[in-house]
Amino acid sequence: MSENVTEQEKLKRAKIRLIVVIVAAVVIPVAIFLGPGFMREMDRQRIVDEGVTADAVVIDLEDTGNRMNDNPEIRMTLDVTRKDGSTYRAVHIDYLSVVTLANYPPGAKVKVKYDAKDPSKVALSGI
To answer: What would the CATH number be for the domain defined by 51-126?
Structure first.
């Protein structure tokens, strides 16, 4: 009888290992695929909520070739002007709808927020 219990325990452990492998096989690729975009969105939201407001001018737009829901990912080069009048160049990468993209031609003045600890991190906050 103890041999049956041992076999049952082995079978139970094998099932648990199989479940762990299946979960890992699903979760790890999803995290790798969605993780960077999710983290970037969390960082963007933090900057919008807590960042320093500034004016900026769109210098250049570049399509990265990536798409999300048919919206292009755009690399936007900005000249940011701080409240003290100093300026610096920053790059903002975001998915923008084609309709929204029309609001940001080169030369357009936009409102941004930047991370006070790392001013290279910029988020759009308005036109």
So the answer is: 2.40.50
- Per residue in 46-88, pLDDT (tens digit) is 999 999 999 999 999 999 998 988 999 999 999 999 999 999 9
Look-up of token digits 């933090």: 46
What are the CA-CA distances from residue 83 to residues 28, 43, 50, 56 (Å)?
A: 44, 22, 16, 11
Tokens of 52: 């320093």
Cβ–Cβ under 8 Å, residues 74 and 96: yes
**Torsion angle in degrees (nearest 10) through CA of 37, 61, 53, 110:** -130
Beta bridge partners of 96: none
Spell out where the chain has E strands: 52-68, 71-81, 87-95, 109-114, 122-126
Map out the domains of the chain as residue ranges.
51-126
Report residue 44's pLDDT band, with 50, 70 and 90 as the boundaries: confident
